[in-house]
Amino acid sequence: MTYDIRIEAAGVTDRGSVRADNQDQFFVAELTRCLNTISSSLALQEGTQLNGATLGHLLMVADGMGGHSAGVEASRLAVQYFIASILNRIRWLSPKSNPDESALIEDLKLILNQSHREIKRQSELDPDLTGMGTTFTMAYVIWPRMHIVHAGDTRCYLFRQGKLQLLTSDHTVAEQLMKSGRLQPDSTQRSPWSNVLVNALGADADAVQAEISAVELVDQDIVLMCSDGLNKHVEDLQIQNTIIQNPEPQALCQALVEQAKTAGGTDNVTVVAARWRRASQGDGMPIYQSIRNTSSLFREIASPSEELETHELSSENRSQLDLSDAPTRPIHVDDLRHP
Fold first, then answer.
1. Which tens digit of pLDDT belongs to each residue from 197-239?
2. Is 311 helix (H, G, I), strand (E, B) or coil?
3. Distance from C-alpha of 27 to C-alpha of 80, rounded to nearest angstrom
4. DSSP secondary structure string for all residues of 51-82
5. Would the N or C end of the chain have less CB density within 10 A of its end CB?
6. pTM
7. φ, ψ of residue 155 in degrees (nearest 5)
């Protein structure tokens, strides 16, 4: 007996109740094996795409900074750069056959740094984009392992068995002051230092510091990602209670966005949620078509007798972030987003 991991996922973004534009971006996707039909004697039209088993899932949230269109451009560039990099790196297309977790971690760091440099390069080419930057958080799931790459104050949470856990750090001056004991934890949201970033992509910084972490997911886990437009107005306990009341991802995202707007909506707000469910099935492998003018289900065929060699990812080589050495200069979010 094999197990099929099903995902329900959704994302909602809103400019909020105050801002004139929306500088947030999000992206949710499945990573699959795929064939593009060129010609065939089968009942398949040219261009029909055949998709095999799901390899993994991607969740991304980016919160742009900069006047006019600059913030939108920065967050868009970050998301697009990660998409292009993942699609064109072999190890990402065959993740279960690669046992080296350290190589994956190095990939995540490399892509984040390359994205940072591309945003800087674009900002130097266009005066209207000068100083643009973005936060960025991505979850990359190869069941049951979830890797997170993070820079800034967008967040990734894990909801498990009724409890909500924050998996990322806010790369702000307020967070640094809190860790050093110079700011009480319950003062973080009220402090003006909560709007001052010490780590982000672009923003005229020399480099970006990647926070990398990993967690083992279990059946019924819900992963929630958001821009700071949510947690500025909605406390973690309220987020937790909302998940309990609205476990379906689309309804959950919409409910949290509305709560943030009702509470003031002073910033753009983006919420992405995904719930994984394990369902038992037979030993067949589904093959389905993306074009609906033929049969939507091609057929289910027996699995091959030998699979590619697979390995469990080790728990070694996990990176821990130390913001005391963060190379990025402090960035006042309000100054950048709304000059």
1. 999 999 999 999 999 999 999 999 999 999 999 999 999 999 9
2. coil
3. 9
4. EEEEEEEEEEEEEEESTTTHHHHHHHHHHHHH
5. N
6. 0.82
7. -130, 155
